[in-house]
Amino acid sequence: SHIRHAWDPTKSVAQNLAEMGLSEDPNKALPIPRKKLLGMEVESDGRGQGKKIVRKPYVVNEMEYEASLPEKKSNTLSRDLIDYVRYMIQKHGENYKEMAQDEKNYYQDTPKQIKKKINVYKNFYPEEYKDFVASLKQEKMDVQ
């Protein structure tokens, strides 16, 4: 978005990027040093590096700042998976073999696969899981 706002449509891509302090060709920005390959010397193309004037340094500064921000964790589970796990726990408790034979096991998960899904739910939402299990125990106590 920073580049889009600083872009001048009357100029070429190379001119726009140069004004922002960016490079259109990464090979020119970070040239590979000459090396000797099997006794032969690799020649450079002979183009001189001219002094470049950066007229819009704020673009690079804003992009560097944005890149330095920590990434937000957006790990969540789908609502379907949460409902599936809660239904299985509510109906079968910790009996994974019964869960595998349940009619709501549409994907025909094995007991180990169901256990993994429940563990993923426990890891993503530990507080919600504890509250859910506590409410199930409370329901059982009320019924008895």
UniProtKB/TrEMBL annotation:
It is found in: Nucleus, Nucleolus. It holds the Pfam family Nop16. Keywords: Nucleus. GO terms for biological process: ribosomal large subunit biogenesis. Signal peptide: none annotated. InterPro entries: Ribosome_biogenesis_Nop16. GO terms for cellular component: nucleolus. The keyword Transmembrane helix does not apply. Belongs to the NOP16 family. This is Nucleolar protein 16. It comes from Chloroceryle aenea.
